[in-house]
Amino acid sequence: GVLALSHVGSPREAGRRCPSESVEPAAALPPPARRRTGTRAMCDSLSAAMARQCPPSCDVAAGAAPCRRACYSRVFGATWFGLALFLTLSVQGCITAESAGSGPNTDARAALAAQVEEMYSHAFGSYMKHAFPWDELRPLSCDGRRVRERGDLDAMLGNYSMTLIDALDSLAVFGRLSDLEMAVEHISSSVSFDLDLEVSTFEVNIRVLGGLLGGHLHAERLLEGYSGALLEKAVD
Questions:
Q1: Cβ(75)–Cβ(60) under 8 Å?
Q2: How far apart are CA 9 and CA 92, in angstroms?
Q3: How far apart are CA 138 and CA 140, in angstroms?
């Protein structure tokens, strides 16, 4: 629409191009209403809710503190009650679905869970077989990525077994405790962050630091004799 109007031009210009056609001037349009988004929209909604909840004698805008506090309490109380009711009903629905017993749906979910576990086993096993202890598996050449060769895409690499660190929590989720114990041993004894590298802060935070902290929490719960080596690496 914008392109078409810019091509034709205004009605006056169209009249100059085609003198045989009479073009009536377009009626003046009201300016478009400004959309209120984000915090402003939330404040407008809250003001409308307060106007409905508060008695006419309560001038919220005037700053009557006791009345304003009462209005806030009523509006926010109703809001939190509605949210709590929604969450309660959602949880009850999930519990009801889970307690429905065995059947086709249960079997289908078990089959999907087994498929996910098989895919994870294939991915992690391929990394350990072809790429460990490097950061990533190169799936076409089937070897480890040892150098940065893709520009900023490799900004998180540092030869600190990143995939192994990234997999610590999923090893716990899938119950692969022997692999988790091996990973903890390797990371605590062989991984070093004493490196002079420019890295992607975001990627290293969520994959390396997050992986170490998540792995530490799982190792404390699942591995006997674990002494906090992953937490020490996280601090390092």
A1: no
A2: 61
A3: 6
* Cβ-based neighbours of 9, under 8 Å, separated by 6 or more: 17
Total residue length of the chain:
236
Q: Which of 73, 38, 36 is nearest to 53 (CA)?
A: 73
Closest CA to 135 of 113, 108, 165, 115: 165
Under 8 Å between Cβ of 164 and 133: yes
Q: For each of the chain's 236 residues, which pLDDT tens digit applies?
A: 334 333 444 444 444 444 444 444 445 545 555 554 555 555 566 556 555 555 555 554 454 555 555 554 554 455 555 555 555 555 555 555 555 555 668 889 999 999 999 999 999 999 999 999 999 999 899 998 888 888 877 888 898 999 999 999 999 999 999 999 999 999 999 999 998 888 889 989 999 999 999 999 999 999 999 999 999 999 99
Spell out the residues 6+ positions from residue 74 whose beta carbon is closer than 8 angstroms to its own.
Answer: 53, 54
Instruction: Output the DSSP codes for 62-83.
Output: TT-HHHHHHHHHHHHHHHHHHH
SS3 11: helix
Name the phi and psi angles at 143, rounded to 5.
-150, 180
Helices (H), the chain: 2-8, 11-17, 38-53, 65-98, 104-130, 162-166, 168-173, 177-190, 201-203, 210-222, 229-235
CA 125, 172, 203: angle at the middle one, nearest 5?
Answer: 75
Decide if 182 contacts 161 (C-beta within 8 A): no
